Amino acid sequence: MKKIIILLCIVPLLMATQCEEDSVPTIFRNNFKVKIINQSNLSVDDTIWIEGRVSSKVYNSQIGDSTFADYPESLQISIYKFITPTQNYNTKDAIDKFDLIYPNQLIDFLGVCNNSTMTITPTLNSTGNLYKFKLGLKAKSSGDFIIKFPYKQSIENAERNLSLINNYPSPNNNYLLGFNSCGSSTWAMETDIGDYCFKVN
C-alpha cells in the first residue's frame, strides 16, 4: 500500500516535468518587405535589383513579448519566363536567363527545380534591428518575366506590371498562370501579392 501511495505522489510530478520539457515557445515571424529597384522595361545587360528587409525581432507567444531572432528566416524567390502558352503552362523556369549578383548574401538552390527557385538568407544590418538582403538579376536575354515570392510576402512596389500576363492567355480559362519548373507543371488561378512582372528588350 505504501508503494502505491508513493507512486500516486510521484506520477503527477513526473508528468508535470514532462510537460515542461515538451512545451516549445511559439514564434511568430514578420513577413519580409520587398522592393524591386529599377524600371520595369530593361535591356539585355541591365540589372534589376531586389531588396528585402525584415525585423530582427520575433513575437514569442510563450513569454508574450518580442525577442531577438538570433538566426534569420530564409526567403525563396522564383523566376519564370513567359512563353507561348501550351495546354500545361505559359511560363518556364528562367534563373539561367540572368547573371545573379548577390553581395554579402548566401544563396542556395535546394529546391526541386534549381532553375526556377533559389533560397536567399539575409544578413543582420549594422544596428542589429533588421535582417536585409540585396539580389541583382543581370539580364542575359530578352523576354517577359515574372518574379514570385511566397504567398505571404508582399512587394512594396505600387506597380507590379501584371498586365504582361494578358499577353500569354492560358488555353484553359480556369487558370491564369501555369509554371513549368524543370518539366513539372502547376497552375495558379490568380496572382499572389508577391508576383512582379517585367520586360527585357
Question: Would you mind describing this structure in some detail?
Answer:
- With about 200 residues, the protein is mostly beta strands.
- The chain contains one helix and 18 strands.
- The strands form three sheets. Strands 3, 7, 8, 10, 11, 14, 16, 17 and 18 form a nine-stranded mixed β-sheet that branches.
- A hairpin with a 5-residue loop joins strand 12 (about 125) and strand 13 (about 130-140).
- Mean pLDDT is about 85; it is low at about 1-10 and about 15-20.
Tag the structure with descriptive keywords:
201 residues; disordered N terminus; single chain; mainly beta
Distance between the termini: 88 Å
Order of helices and strands: HEEEEEEEEEEEEEEEEEE
Q: What level of helicity do the residues show?
A: 10-25%
Task: Tell me the overall shape.
Answer: globular
Number of helices: 1
Largest sheet features: 9 strands, mixed
The beta-strand count equals 18
- Average pLDDT confidence is 85
Classify the beta-strand content into a percent band: 35-45%
How do the strands and helices of this protein lay out in sequence?
Elements: H1 2-22, E1 27-28, E2 33-37, E3 41-42, E4 47-55, E5 57-60, E6 65-68, E7 75-82, E8 91-93, E9 98-101, E10 106-108, E11 117-121, E12 123-124, E13 130-139, E14 143-148, E15 154-155, E16 177-181, E17 184-188, E18 195-200
Parallel strand pairs: 2-15, 3-18, 8-16
Antiparallel strand pairs: 1-5, 2-4, 4-13, 5-6, 7-8, 7-11, 7-14, 9-13, 10-11, 12-13, 14-18, 16-17
